[in-house]
Structure formats: structure tokens, C-alpha cells
Inverse folding.
């Protein structure tokens, strides 16, 4: 009799202990779905001019060129949310002195965008959109097949090593570029771009 009463008192906590791993597994599964949705959306829209409509289980918040997406999966105590941020394309900075027919010293004059002329040509066309992924060492510009095979899945072309940081860009030699990346990411008109 005593054994049955102890068993009756302990049964609810034993039941809770027995289903706890299943609850944790369900929360982890929902977290995985929310995470993959948020990361995929961020990767597909990184560097784009405008962000596409988010998936149905996500909410997008824009603050200038910075975008935050929060994706949620599951219901009740199993609901999990993940937030990821990314940046849209940044327009070039302008030294706008009006449409006076000449550019400014060293800047990009939006009133006269053709204030610089260069005879520089490149072997390949510049990709329309870059992903957040770096180009592999075996195809450092992505032009030997990497972008053809992977750009759609990555959400854009891979970034060459000179575009990984502003310092790499500034120290690069435009004569070695395989396509035009001048003023990439709003980093300015390259100082040696006109040295043909």
C-alpha cells in the first residue's frame, strides 16, 4: 500500500521527466527551421538594392540600408524565433555642387556622374549582385566557373579577396582586376583607377 501511494505521488514528475527530451527536440527542430529561413533570406538579399518580401513566418524591419529579419517557427511553448541582420546596397557618396559641368576634387559628383572618364577595360563583366561569400582560392574572382555553378544558390557572385575589406580594396591594383569593382561598397573611387 505504501509503495502504491509513493508511486502515485511520484508519477506526475516521472511523466514530466519522460517527455522532457521530446519537448527539447521539438524546440530544437523549430529553432533550426527558423534559423535556416532567416539566414537564407539574409543571404539572398545582402547587397541588393531593395529587400524582397520576407517569407510568411518572418517579419522584416528596415532602417536605411540596414535590414533586420525575425523568423518564427512553432506554436505555444515550442515557438522559437531567430533574428538576423544584413545590409542593402549603399549608394555612392556625393560631393554634389550642383550641375556645374565639372566634378569635385576626388569625389563623385551626383550632378555630373560622368565627371571621370577612364579608358580602362576588363576581361569580364562585373556581376550584378554579390553574395556574402568569399571566392575560393582555386577561382579567386569566381569567373572560371564558380559563380556559374553557385551564384544562384548563394544569392549572388562570390567576393574576390580585394573586396573582403576596405584596406584590401585600397591596396589593390586595378590593373589586376578581372572585372570593374571601382567604388565597391561605397569605398570610394580607387586612387589608381585612371592609371591605365
Amino acid at each position: 500500500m505504501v509503495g502504491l501511494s509513493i508511486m502515485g505521488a511520484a508519477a506526475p514528475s516521472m511523466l514530466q521527466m519522460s517527455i522532457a527530451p521530446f519537448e527539447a527536440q521539438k524546440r530544437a527542430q523549430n529553432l533550426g527551421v527558423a534559423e535556416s529561413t532567416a539566414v537564407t533570406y539574409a543571404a539572398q538579399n545582402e547587397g541588393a538594392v531593395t529587400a524582397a518580401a520576407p517569407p510568411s513566418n518572418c517579419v522584416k524591419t528596415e532602417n536605411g540600408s540596414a535590414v533586420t529579419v525575425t523568423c518564427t517557427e512553432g506554436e505555444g511553448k515550442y515557438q522559437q524565433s531567430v533574428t538576423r541582420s544584413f545590409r542593402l546596397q549603399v549608394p555612392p557618396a556625393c560631393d554634389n555642387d550642383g550641375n556645374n559641368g565639372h566634378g569635385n576634387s576626388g569625389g563623385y559628383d551626383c550632378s555630373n556622374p560622368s565627371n571621370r572618364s577612364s579608358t580602362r577595360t576588363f576581361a569580364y563583366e562585373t556581376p550584378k549582385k554579390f553574395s556574402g561569400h568569399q571566392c575560393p582560392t582555386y577561382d579567386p574572382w569566381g569567373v572560371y566557373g564558380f559563380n556559374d555553378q553557385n551564384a544562384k544558390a548563394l544569392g549572388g557572385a562570390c567576393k574576390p579577396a580585394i573586396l573582403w575589406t576596405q584596406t584590401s580594396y585600397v591596396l589593390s591594383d586595378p590593373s589586376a582586376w578581372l572585372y570593374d569593382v571601382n567604388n565597391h561598397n561605397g569605398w570610394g573611387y580607387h586612387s589608381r583607377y585612371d592609371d591605365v
In short: The first strand starts at residue 58 and ends at 63. Residues 95-115 have pLDDT under 50 and may be disordered. The helical segments are 2-45, 146-154, 166-171. The radius of gyration is 26 Å.
